[in-house]
């Protein structure tokens, strides 16, 4: 179970995370985070050129430790501010203020580090949000208390560092070179800084026009955006402070271009270097970015230009999955980039990064994508497909080794290029998210129905992806897309498939298929001939399900039997096993619809008598097992659940199974009661039914039937006495039949079958009372033609079920009297005894054979122990030679345990 | 009778030349339009090398027109090819025909090849030529030649794939020559080879089995012991599965063989099972007869179907000769089931059901009573047959069940005693050895 999921999730992960390289560097980064920082700061302080020293282990001074601590505190403040965790803020704030004077002292210029000041300013700014009481009321008591404490203390601290704060506020980052050097010490805060600045930018933009962007702001950082509206002027002032001065200093294009070229070459170099090197390079790069933000704010306006797009993308790609990286900021950056991208190649590049980022935005295990977000992504994938369809030169492949580079491709005019990415991966993810969201919604709410309407969109995307991959000659992806399509269609009846197909065809302007069976057949055939066995088995099961659903029972059954899918289903993963069970259940329903009750029973028996039908069908979890599971298992098992619209109606299934069992079990019970044959010790056909029936029999008072089971039990009772009309009426009253597609027809089958079984039951039950019965009488009694009655009786006689013969001349059935003076019961018991005795003799023989064959060969050395056991055995067996009838049974049992013990001894040896 | 004609279903699974007699037969029964049949025949054989015969057919088809010029071209080409092959294979043929060579050939193919190469300078390619030549002969309709050549090839060759093909060719040649004895052996050999060979694709094996089932019909219905053979083969699990999955129409022949073969009554049960299994795919009067008799116990329907069976069988290429036999045996089966169920039968109704006149019916019943050792009597006054029911008394059953118990236990006890004595002896021996 868990294996499947593990594999799954890792799969989707690797689809989306760009390359293992970046993964590696991520880890590396996190590991070395602390030491790296100090290294930078050290080198910064000493003012030496860094990169060579970098490798050596640096001994930290107390100074370094302090600044390190302060940096981490400031980081924590930053983070918790965003999450409104004021308790943490308070904690860190206290630490920071303690460190403040020390830091000041240690600094060469007797100045406060910038991050320190900034943290203060940030706290202050954030506090503004909670100016009015109503805002802080939303927080819980603890947090609110901390908030107040912070508010009080910050005033004091701000007063202490008034000068610095003021300076900072006027010009957030000092242009002083040395300070800038120092800033290198705080890589992380800076990255954040950068993104903050970009974010504020988008935010301001979104305020004027863009609606799609504003959604992101809303959903993710709702507090912030709302705050910007709430507090109005104060905040705006803060922002405008950051923004306003840019236009005055116009872009210094030449020097900047140079700088950019420089940066690009650096990036190139960095790519060639391995994970270790990426850090410092990044540091420099961030450094650059930072300078721009700080010194010339106008850079922000040009950040999203077609020329810088590639570099930006690379940056984002590298920061992905990192702890510090803020997903929402990355997203808005990407949206911005998408807007400015100059050509299709760039657009594709941005989309390829944007889509996985969107997916990653929500944690994958716990929650699901909201409908809005899902549609957003679906739209993105659609636009990606449109671009790709229009530009056959641009292809996307999972195996492409063309990594994102920072080369400027805004001048792209054409030519073949293959980008790394996985369209089918996106589709898989989209599909799974859709299913997941449906599984987590309550099926009885309007939301569920609303969500369901998106499935046509999904289908259109699937078909588009399929067509696109077919054009790309991506066989694996094509097969997977087809698989998704089959998965989408298989549980739908033909009419629904037709309507989905029609709306898809209308949208895409392609020929719709008019024969759903053929469509599914074609799709599956492709998978059979091209895919791996795992997909093949799944496709097979889905096709079987679909055939059965649409009443093509024989085709479905033959496919089921010929595929030998049941031979190795136990080795398959849980999801496939569930699919197998579903197909089997559907087969049972299909055969019932055709009036093949025996087959129906056979198909359903295993599932229905297991006692955990819901789990087996993936339609819910049984109560008693729920408590034993750990939280993790619970989540997993919930994942296996299918959304409601795919369910097979459990009540109908149970009803079908019980009715089929009744039709088999009741005549069988009657025949065993009164026959002298060896049948009498045969076990029940359907234990589930037998248990229910016996329980019902034991009841003293039985009210009129209410639910499905009651009806069937009442019907069974009538059937047992041969009253077929009553039995049929009870069955007919069951309400759940209305869910059966062709219920009228089924009822006809049922009526005939009930008559036949009633006749059989009647004969079995009452033949001891009759010498002979007229066929005509029987025929009128059971409303059957006399020919039918004759052939039924003939069948029973021929198969040896009753001792009787027909008389053609008088048109009667004559029961053969076996009167030997003894009662029937005695004869039955005697016969049983004879059976048991002979089976006892057989067991003895078998055991002897086992000793000879299973023990050591005759001539070899034998241990005393074994000899003893043999002797013991021999003496035990002796009484059995002349079987004593009264003791037959217990002896048997005794002997068997003896045998088992002996076997154990052999095994122990 | 077109409805029950299997020719269209059989033809795709037969060799062109094997299909020809089928078409001839169908033509003689006038089930189809003669013109259509002639065209079918022509198309069937058009890719073979039987040029002269094709020419005749062409003339017939086009109302006396002379066959087009390319016929004579083709004829010449064929003759030239024949000569070429003659030359090419002359050496190896002469070698093989030498008596000392034949006597020194062994079971091991590789060794044989080596032997030939060393002593007679035969190359493997020459053996392949044998195959090609055999195929050519077959295509020309010269079955004797092809049979010989293919036999030699299959002895000498080391290529399993081609050997299988050669065996098919040999089987076809023997069948077309009417050598049923050899063909029977060939068919069995082929069956063993197919079962043994590990085919790359399972469907290939299935296809081979389907072919074999079709081809061997020729053999089984012409060879004296064929009726046993067909039953045996068709009831083998792998072949009965093949029939049920790939060619349900062959059940007709299975039913026919089972009914005709009175000696193997036990196989009837299995046949009934197969018939009811494939009921949703294939039906004809024969299977319906079996179904009516053994599943529905609807005797009236069974009689109607029996009448239809006669018609169907008369129009069937393989069974045409056996139709009377079939009806006789079917009646016996009918009577057997009927007598097991009824204790008193109206003689006249039974005979009319089985389409016999009164007197024949009476004789038949009497004969039946004698043969089957039926415990029954004919009551001539009322014209009834009274059958004494066989009652299985319970005490009788108990006696039967317990009859051998004491003997079995004694044997067991004896074995234990013997072994124990042996063990004791062993241990005392061991003790003395220790001492």
Describe this structure in words.
The complex is a heterodimer of chains A (909) and B (435). Chain A has 909 residues and is mainly alpha-helical. Among the domains of chain A are: 188-340, no CATH class; 344-525, no CATH class; 650-769, no CATH class; 774-818, Winged helix-like DNA-binding domain superfamily/Winged helix DNA-binding domain (Arc Repressor Mutant, subunit A, Orthogonal Bundle), CATH 1.10.10.10; 828-908. Chain A is built from 43 helices and five strands. In chain A, strands 3-5-4 form a three-stranded antiparallel beta sheet. A two-stranded parallel ribbon of chain A has the order 1-2. The two termini of chain A are 38 Å apart. The model of chain A is unreliable at 1-56, 174-258, 270-302 and 856-909 (pLDDT under 50). Chain B is mainly alpha-helical and 435 residues long. Among the domains of chain B are: 346-387, no CATH class; 399-434. Helix content of chain B is 74%, strand content 3%. A three-stranded antiparallel beta sheet of chain B has the order 1-3-2. In chain B, strand 2 and strand 3 form a beta hairpin. In chain B, helix 3 (34-45) packs antiparallel against helix 4 and helix 8 (124-140) packs parallel to helix 10 (160-177). The longest helix of chain B is centred in the C-terminal third of the chain and has 30 residues, at 405-434. Chain B is flat and about 85 Å long. Chain B starts with 6 loop residues before the first helix and ends with a helix. At the A-B interface, helix 28, helix 40, strand 4, helix 41 and helix 42 of A face helix 19, strand 1, helix 22 and helix 23 of B.
């Amino acid at each position: 179970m868990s294996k499947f999921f593990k594999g799954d999730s890792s799969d989707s992960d690797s689809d989306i995370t760009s390359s293992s390289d970046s993964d590696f560097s991520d880890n590396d980064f996190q590991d070395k985070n602390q030491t790296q920082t100090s290294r930078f700061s050290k080198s910064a302080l000493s003012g030496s050129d860094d990169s060579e020293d970098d490798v050596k282990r640096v001994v930290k001074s107390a100074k370094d430790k302090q600044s390190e601590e302060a940096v981490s505190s400031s980081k924590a403040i930053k983070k918790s501010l965003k999450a409104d965790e004021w308790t943490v803020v308070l904690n860190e704030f206290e630490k920071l203020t303690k460190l403040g004077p020390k830091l000041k002292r240690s600094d060469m210029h007797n100045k406060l580090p910038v991050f320190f000041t900034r943290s203060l300013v940030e706290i202050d700014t954030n506090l503004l949000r909670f100016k009015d009481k109503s805002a802080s009321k939303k927080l819980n008591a603890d947090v609110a208390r901390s908030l107040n404490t912070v508010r009080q203390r910050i005033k004091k601290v701000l007063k202490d560092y008034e000068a610095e704060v003021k300076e900072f506020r006027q010009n957030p980052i000092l242009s002083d070179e040395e300070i800038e050097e120092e800033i290198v010490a705080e890589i992380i805060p800076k990255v954040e800084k950068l993104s903050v600045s970009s974010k504020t930018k988008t935010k301001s933009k979104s305020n004027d026009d863009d609606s799609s962007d504003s959604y992101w702001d809303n959903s993710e950082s709702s507090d912030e955006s709302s705050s910007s509206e709430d507090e109005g002027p104060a905040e705006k002032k803060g922002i405008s402070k950051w923004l306003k001065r840019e236009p005055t200093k116009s872009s210094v294009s030449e020097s900047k271009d140079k700088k950019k070229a420089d940066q690009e070459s650096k990036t190139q170099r960095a790519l060639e270097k391995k994970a270790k090197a990426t850090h410092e390079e990044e540091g420099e790069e961030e450094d650059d970015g930072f300078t721009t933000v700080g010194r010339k704010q106008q850079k922000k306006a040009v950040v999203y230009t077609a020329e810088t797009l590639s570099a930006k993308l690379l940056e984002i790609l590298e920061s992905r999955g990192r702890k510090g990286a803020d997903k929402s900021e990355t997203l808005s950056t990407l949206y911005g980039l998408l807007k400015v991208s100059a050509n299709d190649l760039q657009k594709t590049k941005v989309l390829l990064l944007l889509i996985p980022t969107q997916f990653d935005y929500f944690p994958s295990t716990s929650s699901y994508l909201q409908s809005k977000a899902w549609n957003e992504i679906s739209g993105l994938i659609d636009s990606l497909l449109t671009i790709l369809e229009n530009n056959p030169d641009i292809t996307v492949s999972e195996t492409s080794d063309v990594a994102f580079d920072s080369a400027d491709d805004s001048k792209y005019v054409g030519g073949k290029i293959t980008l790394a990415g996985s369209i089918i991966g996106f589709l898989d993810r989209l599909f799974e998210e859709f299913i997941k969201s449906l599984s987590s919604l309550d099926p009885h709410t309007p939301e569920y129905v609303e969500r369901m309407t998106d499935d046509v969109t999904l289908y259109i995307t699937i078909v588009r992806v399929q067509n696109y991959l077919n054009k790309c000659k991506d066989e694996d992806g094509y097969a997977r897309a087809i698989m998704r399509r089959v998965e989408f269609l298989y549980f739908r009846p033909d009419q629904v498939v037709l309507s989905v197909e029609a709306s898809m065809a209308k949208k895409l302007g392609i020929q719709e298929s008019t024969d759903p069976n053929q469509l599914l057949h074609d799709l599956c055939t492709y998978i059979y001939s091209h895919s791996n066995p795992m997909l093949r088995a799944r496709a097979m099961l889905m096709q079987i399900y679909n055939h059965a659903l649409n009443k093509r029972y024989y085709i479905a059954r033959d496919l089921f039997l010929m595929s030998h899918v049941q031979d190795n289903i136990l080795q398959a993963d849980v999801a496939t096993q569930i699919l197998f069970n579903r197909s089997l259940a559907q087969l049972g329903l299909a055969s019932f619809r055709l009036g093949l009750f025996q087959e129906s029973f056979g198909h359903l028996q295993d599932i229905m008598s297991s006692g955990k039908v819901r789990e087996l069908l993936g339609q819910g979890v049984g109560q008693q097992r729920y408590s034993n599971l750990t939280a993790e298992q619970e989540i997993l098992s919930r994942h296996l659940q299918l959304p409601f619209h795919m369910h097979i109606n459990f009540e109908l299934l149970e009803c079908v199974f019980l009715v089929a069992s009744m039709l088999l079990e009741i005549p069988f019970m009657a025949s065993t009661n009164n026959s002298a044959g060896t049948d009498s010790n045969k076990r029940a056909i359907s234990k589930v039914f037998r248990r229910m029936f016996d329980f019902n029999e034991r009841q003293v008072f039985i009210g009129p039937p209410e639910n499905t089971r009651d009806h069937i039990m009442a019907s069974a009772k009538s059937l047992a006495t041969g009253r077929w009309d009553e039995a049929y009426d009870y069955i007919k009253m069951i309400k759940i039949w209305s869910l059966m597609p062709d219920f009228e027809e089924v009822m006809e089958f049922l009526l005939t079958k009930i008559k036949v079984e009633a006749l059989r039951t009647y004969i079995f039950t009452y033949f001891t009372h009759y010498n002979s019965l007229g066929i005509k009488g029987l025929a009128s009694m059971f409303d059957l033609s006399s020919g039918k009655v004759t052939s039924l009786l003939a069948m029973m006689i021929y198969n040896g079920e009753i001792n009787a013969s027909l008389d053609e001349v008088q048109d009667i059935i004559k029961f053969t009297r076996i009167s030997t003076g003894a009662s029937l019961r005695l004869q039955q018991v005697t016969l049983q005894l004879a059976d048991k005795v002979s089976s006892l003799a057989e067991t003895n023989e078998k055991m002897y054979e086992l000793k000879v064959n299973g023990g050591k060969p005759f001539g070899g050395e034998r241990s005393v122990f074994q000899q003893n056991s043999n002797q013991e055995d021999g003496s035990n067996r002796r009484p059995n030679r002349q079987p004593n009838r009264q003791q037959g049974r217990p002896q048997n049992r005794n002997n068997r345990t003896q045998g088992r013990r002996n076997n154990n001894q052999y095994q122990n040896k | 009778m077109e409805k029950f004609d299997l020719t269209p279903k059989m033809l795709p699974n037969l060799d062109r030349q094997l299909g020809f007699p089928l078409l001839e037969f169908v033509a003689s029964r006038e089930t189809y339009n003669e013109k259509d049949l002639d065209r079918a025949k022509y198309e069937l054989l058009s890719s073979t090398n039987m040029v002269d015969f094709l020419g005749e057919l062409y003339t017939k088809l086009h109302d006396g027109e002379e066959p087009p010029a390319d016929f004579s071209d083709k004829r010449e080409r064929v003759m030239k090819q024949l000569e070429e092959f003659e030359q090419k294979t002359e050496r190896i043929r002469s070698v093989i025909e030498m008596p000392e060579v034949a006597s020194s050939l062994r079971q091991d193919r590789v060794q044989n090849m080596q032997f030939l190469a060393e002593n007679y300078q035969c190359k493997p390619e020459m053996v392949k030529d044998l195959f090609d030549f055999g195929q050519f002969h077959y295509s020309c309709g010269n079955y004797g030649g092809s049979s010989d050549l293919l036999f030699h090839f299959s002895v000498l060759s080391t290529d399993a794939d081609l050997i299988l093909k050669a065996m098919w060719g040999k089987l076809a040649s023997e069948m077309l020559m009417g050598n049923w004895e050899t063909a029977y052996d060939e068919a069995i050999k082929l069956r063993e080879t197919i079962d043994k060979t590990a085919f790359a694709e399972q469907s290939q094996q299935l296809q081979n089995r389907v072919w074999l089932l079709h081809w061997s019909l020729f053999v089984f219905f012409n060879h004296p012991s064929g009726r046993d053979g067909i039953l045996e083969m068709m009831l083998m699990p792998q072949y009965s599965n093949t029939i049920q999955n790939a060619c349900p129409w062959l059940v007709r022949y299975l039913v026919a063989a089972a009914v005709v073969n009175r000696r193997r009554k036990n196989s009837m049960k299995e046949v009934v099972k197969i018939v009811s299994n494939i009921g949703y795919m294939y039906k004809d009067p024969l299977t319906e007869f079996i179904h009516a008799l053994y599943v529905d116990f609807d005797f009236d329907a069974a009689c109607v179907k029996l009448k239809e069976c006669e018609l169907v069988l008369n129009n069937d290429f393989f069974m045409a000769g056996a139709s009377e036999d079939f009806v006789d045996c079917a009646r016996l089966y009918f009577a057997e089931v009927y007598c097991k169920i009824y204790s008193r039968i109206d003689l006249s109704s039974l005979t009319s059901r089985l389409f016999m006149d009164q007197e024949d019916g009476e004789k038949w019943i009497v004969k039946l009573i004698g043969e089957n050792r039926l415990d029954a009597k004919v009551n001539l006054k009322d014209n009834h047959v009274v059958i004494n029911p066989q009652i299985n008394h319970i005490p009788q059953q108990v006696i039967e069940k317990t009859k051998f118990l004491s003997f079995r236990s004694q044997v067991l006890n004896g074995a234990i005693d013997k072994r124990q004595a042996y063990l004791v002896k062993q241990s005392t021996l061991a003790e003395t050895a220790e001492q």
